[in-house]
Design brief:
four-stranded antiparallel β-sheet, 429 residues
Length: 429
């Protein structure tokens, strides 16, 4: 009766899992990548960095243009005044004022040129950072997607293990009743069946976790089932991959652009040692009659031109401190750029080795699976005729289960290694 209750429990769990799977959201890898790029905060931040860099570039360019301000005002007081011409009192009235001010920096020690170069480099860094972040998110999405696929297949392996253990238990019970097996065989089969059920429950829990993580990655508040592709992606050609990765990897381009921006900031701080020359123009019109917009042409005009030269001779070594700080930041950025180049080279070496190893492991795992399947078939027949012990049969079953798991794991390792290479080089293979 306990055996029947166990079978019923497993069937109920399997049926519940299938019903839940039928109600789940299903998604392909391409759709998962598209959704994750839309909702991941890191990608939103990277796009925001691009927008900020674009605004900084426009601001740096606009520094070469004149600054223009204008204003109008109307005022009325409750105190009268005396007309200077007639000497008669004039009741309170409105007075109107219009002003226009234009200012242009003619020379600032080449600071604007340095800031423009720095803003351009910062924009390049933001663009490269967005590309790098895009491939990092694609990698994370593929990892979550492939992990959900692998756990889905592992559930099927665990389910097959339960069915094999159930069949073996039934065979051992039949042989015990026929007198051709000992009670130890049925007890060992019962233990194996119980372990298989535990493994199935754990596999189902792992699958639920992986599908929930995939749902979070793509912005869905529910577990998501990954729809597998029909074919395994081909092995990429890695012959010319290293040179392209070192020269055009997004991480390297971002670090180089940041170093260029830091060098431009050094020149920007040096501009503080130069004088600055500014020209400005001011035009004011004021009167008490109704104004004619927008030029206030009916009012008398008061204008002025101003040329100003400013040169800071000493400011308590503040310029020197800024210069040292900018130089330190430049040295750090250049060191990081060089280290990033070496890091990309090391990562690519590691991932290419992992990719090559995964390809060989897939072939070995497939051969092992075929051998383990045939071995279990032989051991089943030998056990039926009494030529093998229950221990031989259980060993073959465990070997087949492990071979099936290894096939899934090696395929998963290959897909992840391929995605990691794409993330390093910054392009699809």
């Amino acid at each position: 009766m306990r055996w029947l209750r166990g079978v019923t429990a497993v069937l109920v769990v399997a049926l519940t899992a299938r019903v839940a799977a039928a109600q789940q959201v299903e998604i392909t890898l391409q759709e998962a990548v598209r959704r994750s790029l839309d909702v991941q905060p890191a990608m939103v931040q990277a796009r925001g960095d691009q927008r900020n860099a674009g605004a900084s570039s426009r601001s740096a360019f606009a520094a070469f243009l004149p600054s223009v301000t204008t204003g109008v005002s109307a005022a009325r007081s409750n105190v009268g005044r005396i007309d200077p011409t007639t000497g008669r009192p004039v009741p309170p009235d409105y007075s109107y004022t219009g002003s226009l001010n234009v200012s242009l920096v003619l020379f600032d020690g080449f600071q604007r040129f340095a800031n423009l170069k720095s803003a351009s480099a910062t924009g390049n860094a933001a663009e490269a950072g967005a590309v790098n972040q895009r491939f990092q998110i694609i990698l994370a999405t593929k990892q979550a997607f492939y992990n959900a696929l692998a756990n889905d297949e592992l559930v099927r392996v665990a389910d097959a293990q339960v069915r094999r253990a159930q069949q073996q238990l039934q065979i051992s019970i039949d042989k015990l009743h026929a007198g051709s097996a000992t009670r130890s065989d049925s007890l060992r089969s019962t233990v194996e069946y119980g372990n298989a059920r535990i493994a199935l429950l754990q596999a189902q829990a792992n699958l639920a976790t992986a599908q929930a993580n995939l749902g979070r990655q793509i912005g869905v508040d529910a577990p998501v089932r990954a729809v597998p592709d029909t074919a395994l992606p081909a092995v990429p050609d890695t012959g010319d991959l290293r040179r392209a990765a070192i020269e055009g990897a997004p991480a390297v381009e971002q670090a180089e652009a940041q170093a260029s921006a830091a060098r431009a900031q050094v020149w920007s701080t040096r501009s503080q040692y130069w004088p600055s020359l500014v020209v400005s123009y001011s035009n004011n019109r004021q009167g008490v009659g109704s104004p004619s917009f927008p030029l206030f042409s009916s009012y008398p005009e008061t204008f002025s031109w101003r040329f100003g030269l400013s040169w800071t001779l000493f400011n308590g070594f503040t310029r020197e401190a800024n210069q040292v700080s900018a130089s330190v930041n430049r040295d750090i950025a250049e060191a990081r750029a060089a280290d990033t180049r070496r890091q990309v080279n090391a990562l690519l070496t590691q991932q290419l080795a992992t990719l090559a190893t995964a390809v060989e492991q897939i072939n070995i795992a497939r051969d092992n699976l075929a051998a383990a399947t045939e071995d279990l078939r032989v051991q089943n027949e030998r056990y039926r005729v009494g030529a093998a012990t229950i221990l031989d049969l259980l060993t073959s079953q465990a070997a087949l289960t492990q071979a099936e798991v290894n096939v899934i794991q090696t395929r998963f390792n290959y897909l992840i290694a391929r995605a990691q290479v794409e993330a390093v080089v910054g392009r699809m293979l």
